[in-house]
Amino acid sequence: MQAPRMRIAVFGFSELSERLREAGHEVFQASEPREIESAQLVVLGVSPEQMEFFVEKLAVFAKRGQLFLHSCPRYTLEVFRPLVELGALCFVSIETTHEAWSVTASDEVTATVGELLLAECQLRSISVPESKLQEFVAGVAFASFRNQVEIIAYQLLDQAVTDTETQVEIVDNAAGSRALMDVGTLERCVEVIPEPADRETFRHLAKRMAQAYRAHDVEWWAMNEGMDKE
């Protein structure tokens, strides 16, 4: 049996709303706050700079029990406070992987609705409490930096090893290693990294890893001697 279809108003662009359209919901692009009166779910896909402005305008026409969603990592549920005070049901859903989105809701019922909507989109839901949403976003952001580090690693490896599978094996193995090279080796590494910005990134990461494993000589090099060589 097919779940009830919703009429969904979208302001701006939202990838999730496109998935909901594909799942059979009636999705329409809204341009005026008054248009939400006919919608069961309102999706805010506007820019972070516009979010608070839109919430304020939509609060004039919001109804008790109406659903509101945003996927902006900058904001928690706090941005929805004017709507929650009117009895609206609000949740935040942020893309975390290609197959999973987070769900942070104003109450358990809304969380369940959010999880069901994600399931209809063939997405797995990750429940994140409101009190930890900012930490969650920070963790996702921190993990995203790994991509740039890997790009630099592959560029350097490609100069010595042309086999792609071998490069991937080396990178994957290094990612799980706790070994930290000695100062002399790290100095040699810096010398062959062509981009100044990449050399700086290398030193910052060496410093942080040295702090984690109490390698004080490497930490000192990264903070002082390494910087002096620019």
From TrEMBL:
<dbReference type="Pfam" id="PF22242">
    <property type="entry name" value="6PGD_like"/>
</dbReference>
<feature type="domain" description="CGL2689-like C-terminal">
    <location>
        <begin position="134"/>
        <end position="225"/>
    </location>
</feature>
<dbReference type="InterPro" id="IPR054507">
    <property type="entry name" value="CGL2689-like_C"/>
</dbReference>
<protein>
    <recommendedName>
        <fullName>CGL2689-like C-terminal domain-containing protein</fullName>
    </recommendedName>
</protein>
